[in-house]
Design a protein that fits this description.
Helix content is 54%, strand content 19%. By secondary structure, it is an alpha+beta fold.
Length: 429
């Protein structure tokens, strides 16, 4: 009925063990309480008789004859003791309780009062049988309840499984989280996040294939047209050299496109790399130092402002490097001469916020800036940089955003939000 890895089976076993233990403990305590209460009443009754006889020794013979059901006699023990004891004996089908009570310690004599309690013993046996029967019925009800409860608990999982099994890459719909029990809402939200990523992946893959075909088709058409024109009539050596140079230039452009497409494959391989512990702030300082020389060579400035002083995270360093490098390359490319670029970081409730602020021409926020082959401004490029950065951010579980500046200066703010759940902050220096 259940597999060896079934959580439902484990739940049932644990519930049954806990319920059986509770029933046995409760029933045992109940029976022992009833038994002790009854025998304590019998003990008090015999003790009352013994005290009366001991206090009125001359009435011993009259008392012994006037109390039916009691067997009263005087016994002598070798050692004198002031303790009172009671014990139970069985003779055939009859049960007796006997009380030994000090009568005359000087003569080492004791009262031995016995009473037949066969009826009481039979009542206790019936009570024990009733408790045992009730336990069996209760355990059966617990089994039924446990099976019903476990089935009810996995119903939401079965519902999610059914919905997901009916989906494909063309018919993906988010799960209605509000229809799930509150305990399953985090799971539903996680699945919806995964569905969103799958939708984006499918969308971008389609755009990538279409864009790749379009980007490669244009230079191929140029090469073919140029060759056809060249072959119409004989031309001079210089004209043939010029045609070949144009062809080589077009081929170089195609190589750039192919190299960027190959970077997508390399990035997917980088996503499978084992995360390592990285001080993100130290990494940002190193990248900033490298790009600062490049900025100065282009008559631009790169300033830095890092908070906190250290931020440790477990992540794939190559993916983080790809994002930051793309941000800085775009910022320097679109920032004009004598302009400035800022690389900064700050900590918030979500984690570490990394921002690259430039003084470029800004972006069209109505467009999907992370789609493949999307170009902004009048600068050259294939249009795969932000697409690769977005894929790397998704693999890191981070958030990425490109927006225009709102401080009255033309330019953009490229931000990366690292999740602090997978990282920790170093103490400030």
């Amino acid at each position: 009925m259940f597999s060896s890895r079934s959580i439902r089976k484990d739940f049932l076993i644990q519930l049954l063990i806990a319920s059986a233990s509770l029933i046995i403990i409760f029933s045992s305590l109940l029976y022992f309480f009833i038994e002790k209460s009854i025998y304590e009443e019998k003990y008090k009754e015999l003790l009352h008789y013994a005290q009366n006889i001991s206090n009125n020794k001359e009435l011993f013979s009259n008392t012994a004859d006037s109390l039916p059901g009691l067997n009263i006699e005087i016994i002598h023990l070798e050692k004198a003791s002031e303790d009172t004891s009671m014990y139970q004996t069985t003779k055939g089908e009859d049960t007796f309780i006997t009380l030994i009570y000090p009568f005359n310690l000087d003569q080492r004599s004791y009262l031995k009062i016995s009473k037949k309690i066969s009826q009481t013993a039979r009542i206790l046996d019936k009570i024990l049988n009733y408790i045992f029967t009730v336990n069996i019925i209760g355990f059966v009800l617990v089994i039924i309840y446990a099976v019903t409860l476990s089935k009810m608990l996995i119903n939401p999982v079965n519902t999610l499984t059914k919905k997901l099994s009916n989906m494909n890459e063309h018919l993906i719909h988010p799960i209605k989280v509000e229809s799930l029990p509150s305990e399953f809402e985090p799971l539903g939200e996680t699945i919806n996040h995964l569905i969103s990523r799958i939708e984006n992946f499918v969308k971008y893959q389609k755009e990538l294939f279409i864009g790749t075909a379009h980007e490669l088709k244009t230079p191929l058409a140029v090469i073919k047209l140029k060759n056809q024109v060249t072959l119409i009539k004989k031309r001079s050596a210089e004209e043939y050299i010029e045609a070949l140079n144009v062809t080589n230039k077009t081929i170089d452009e195609m190589n750039i496109i192919v190299s960027n497409i190959l970077n997508i494959g390399r990035q997917e391989g980088a996503q499978l790399e084992k995360p390592v512990e990285v001080d993100v702030i130290a990494f940002l300082k190193e990248k900033a130092d490298n790009f600062k020389l490049l900025a100065e060579n282009e008559h631009k400035s790169l300033s830095m402002n890092f908070e906190p002083s250290g931020f440790m995270a477990y992540l794939q360093l190559s993916l983080l490097n790809q994002i930051i490098q793309n941000f800085l390359q775009n910022a320097l490319k679109f920032t004009g001469p004598n302009g400035g670029v800022v690389l900064q970081s700050s900590q918030d409730d979500f984690g570490l916020l990394i921002e690259v602020i430039d003084e470029g021409c800004g972006v069209d926020e109505t467009q999907d800036l992370f789609a493949p082959f999307k170009r902004q401004g009048n600068k050259s490029g294939v249009g795969l940089g932000l697409f690769l950065a977005k894929s790397a951010a998704d693999a890191l579980g981070a958030k990425i955003e490109i927006k225009n500046r709102i401080d009255g200066i033309d330019g953009t703010v490229a931000s990366l939000q690292l999740n602090s759940k997978l990282s920790c902050t170093l103490p400030r220096k």
